[in-house]
Amino acid sequence: VSQTYNKAYDFGAINEKGKTVLPFEYDQIIAEPNPGIFNGMFEVKKDGKVGFVDKKGEVVIPCEYEERGFLSNFDNGFSFKKNGKSGVVDYEGNIVWPFEFDAIFDASDKLVRCEINGKIGVMNKDGKWISEQLTRYGFPMNIYGNTVEVFEGESAGAGENTNNFAEYTAL
Predict the structure, then answer these.
(1) Is the pTM of the predicted complex or chain greater than 0.70?
(2) Cβ distance 100 to 85 under 8 Å?
């Protein structure tokens, strides 16, 4: 796809030959990173809600979400907000994590920081908690591959990822 155009205040896309590849029915085609193509899909906004369509213009993830989150390295899908709560939708449009989280933060390809009921913890890509849910004053700060770096008050520690709570040692 070469460019997006505004036709009567609706956005769509055409290819180099001038053929319409996305119908001109969207409020916006998200132009990040290049130009809004993720896993062969376009991120689009319609009636103020975001979703994804494939290169044939078929809806993969319906435009029913308030916003897309920032799970840039996460291989299970995208985080979205719906009714003020965050969840994860896979690349085929299936809800893989329910919309019950206050927030879903940055991730490695295997780990995600999640906030629920004011507490933050770390989950693996299968949606299983691998750390305790900590208060905001002891929350996971960084995730590096399989390592979770945690700040707790005046001390910091790091632990290797296991399917159980990580053992923390001083840095």
Answers:
(1) yes
(2) yes
